[in-house]
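Q: Give me the 3D complex with pyridoxal-5'-phosphate.
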Amino acid sequence: MYTGSLRSQICALDPYTPGLSIDEIRQKYGLAQIFKMASNENPLGVPPLAQEAIARHAGEAFRYPRGGNPRLLAALSKLHNVSERNIVIGNGSDEVIDLLIRMLCEPAKDNIVCFSPCFNLYPIQAQISGVAIKRCPLQEDFSFDFNGLLAQVDDATRLVFLTTPDNPSGYCPKIDVVRDFAAKIAQKAPKALLLIDEAYMDFSDDETAYSLLAAQDIPSNVGIMRTFSKSYGLAGLRLGYAILPEVIAEGFWRARLPFSVNLLAEEAGLAALNDQCFREKTMETVRQGRKLLTDSLQAMGCTVWPSAANFLLFRLPQGAKAKDCFETLLARGIIIRLLKSYSLPDHLRVSIGNQQENAAFLKEMQAFLSGI
Ligand SMILES: *Cc1c(COP(=O)(O)O)cnc(C)c1O
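A: Here is the predicted complex, encoded as structure tokens.
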């Protein structure tokens, strides 16, 4: 008889809860058409050039991928004008986050620092690794209390997480404030890396106003993460990357599972980088949809937070319950996101969809709100 047990950190673990999947909802409600606006995926689907690349390379799937992803490294180096020696690639940003925590933090000794609420994967992966988590609450309007976050940083801090634009609010601080914060961390905790998660940065109106990567001005204690899951339309293939100090990047490649980025993901990623037409359409769709949904939800009496990303955080007018709204829309085939896991039971998050999805969402919102 097996008498082992799980590590205490795993016994206590509250797992990451993803948005509901289309299949789950189709089965549950027997609906023909489902619109998923819950996970901030690309509203236009997969870039056509990436679809072609996946089909073209399908016959190679029996081969192991080449180690080190050299072609993708070269393409990303060119895209961002940074040295290949500073770039790492992983099975989504998720793998990059997990591996950096394990590489940089000694269990039961070091800590990570993040806001509360924040993207749940940072504290969850830290907990799995037995690394302490120190948190600072967001301000009432979801903006960042940088002084409060800095106050959490101590000698044992190895990673400080920032998400810009932030999830779930869409808030994005200006570049000067972020640069200043990085300098303060360097002074207070020289062993801490400020890891900035820019999963949604390319949806902002002007990247150079918000991103140290876009402005070509990355301080030596800063790492920046990006992903192919959102604007590049490849969430299902799992591909993310980061720009890191060279010593960390070098260790990352030694520590990473050798084949975690699969062969089709690499080919699709390379093709997606070349699909300029898809990219322009994506940005136009998101910017137009963001304005349409913001204006329309406000006209219905909802409170909508300004967003630089491809989703909106909103609250219903007095008297309407977020959970009822979520369930009513679900039964009509529209999946949005409840924010219980972010400890925001009164708020909802909706991903910007394509024209058809946005129209269906607004129609059902109107119907729900006129029924209360
Ligand atoms: C969607 C998202 C990511 C992307 O994660 P992948 O593993 O690359 O799919 C990263 N950070 C945040 C905050 C996100 O919302």
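A quick observation: Residues 276-299 form the longest helix (24 residues).
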